[in-house]
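Quick one - first record:
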Amino acid sequence: MKQGIHPVYKSVIITCSCGNIIETRSTMSQNLTLEVCGKCHPFYTGKQRIVDTGGRVERFNKRFNIPVKK
């Protein structure tokens, strides 16, 4: 492996807006701030909502014979 051509790999702290802190290693030179992480994203927390735009969800479900949950 050639010396002096690889970026410096150091510890980085990633902070989410929900307060979750993730420590990892990266070539980034500064810490990172996220708006959404795995602890607060609706898909992972189970608080997911389907936003219907103009009946497209119903049309998709009807096309593929998917039963509607209510």
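second record:
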Amino acid sequence: MDPPPRTPESIAQQSREQTPADLWESVSDHKVYEGSRRRTCYSDAGSRYWMRLSALDCAHIPKPRLTPKMLVRGTMLLALLLAAILPAGSANEKKITVYSGISNYSLPVTDRNSLEYVGLLEVIEPLGRNVNSRTDGLRWKLHFNDGDAEFTAGKSRAKVRGRDVDLPGNFLLESGRGLVPLTSLGTLLPRLLGTSITFNPGSRRLFVGNVATHFTAQLSRTTPPRLVMNFSAPVNPTIATEPGRLRMSFNREPVVAPGTPTLTFDDAAIPSAVFSENNGAAEIAVNGTAPLMASFSNDGRTITIAPAPQQMSAPSAPAGVPGTAPATPSAANPSSAAAPGVRHFFAVVDASHGGDDRGAALSDKLAEKDVTLALARRLRQELESRGMSTLVLRDSDVNLSFDQRAIFTNTAHPAIYIALHAASDGKGVRLYTAMIPAGGENNGPFVAWDTAQTHFLPVSQIAAQGVASELARRQIQVRTLVAPVRPLNNLIAAAIAVEVAPPGTDVMDLNLPAYQQNVVSAVANGLLAVRDRLGVPQ
């Protein structure tokens, strides 16, 4: 699980054969956390694999020595961090986004002489095999694959593949960089690249070839209603919610408008959706009269938007009565009928990893993401059969970021969040609750993102104890641990992570339906036993 990520089995076997000094050649960090019985040290080898060492090994690990390799890695990491952080810190920074079959990327746009300019080499370099430029006095010469272009500083006429091209403003040469007016790209690029270009200067979005992602939107007449959006290619938008609206921002996907930018639906709960594009990004804003939440399916090609389940207070059902229908229709099963006299209990189940994030390599044929998805679907069935409405965040092979998982969950206001993980080492089940960073108290009106779980730790521990008791009753080996497992720290609800290991020595037993069913049934029974102690979030 991540963090701390699990070592692939082959690396775990090799870790004992390596000396601690050898490990430090590729170690960039060193972390220690307390388990229930033994102290475990995790060393971050690069940024991909973790070495699990015994407490004895940890005691003998020397401080890392600074090597040239580490200096280079640190410089590259700093550059990547700055590239990721600085644009986000300047919301008004102008940018252009280029979409192509090779790569999608964004570049800064600068203002010069009342016009918008962009570096031409930066625009085309990712699109070719042999791309370079050189300066000869005031002349700037550009080579792209089998074509050439020549520009002169202060002039508005250029020569591209031997033909004159007029620019809407003068060409600028700054520190060897060739800057062209932004609006000239629609004329320059088709001649230079030799392919069709679609450019929207107003939104600063440029499409090279036929790469656009189209979508349709259809409102289903269910209770509650669901807006089903199907995309022609996988998408992974950033999602934000506000009163009466859910916004999906597409910063890297070439999503384009349907026939009309405003879609209206004859429904009071979800009356409309609006497509817009600006500053190199597209956005779909879905309007609703109640809080909305989104779920992904069909490998990221389908996004379903529905009203978030509303928490209601009603008389409690007897604690040991299974088979009761959900108090309100489930977001994952809208047709479920409501049973009278049942207190509504809403759960979010999160299958870890997904998409290009396979999770731990449990074996040559078994990936963690597949096991967690199977467990999530079984757990949903078990919870709903016990009267607990359930939403599975990842119900297909799609990757969600930790922040997306946290935002979706916090928007839904569940009584319990259950993250599912799988591991090849050990036996049975490990239950995790969040480890809050030192000094992470929330005393003011604002809650820190990394310590949002602080006030919910007591109910999270109650949930973990309830599940642990039921697992032990079924003679499934269980351990309870505290660890910095994301996104637990970011959640404002009771939250636990359930890591399932094989029942014996054969990792393929993780795929046994009977074993999976026994584990998720125990989790569901354990939560049922303590649900009245978890409370209903307001």
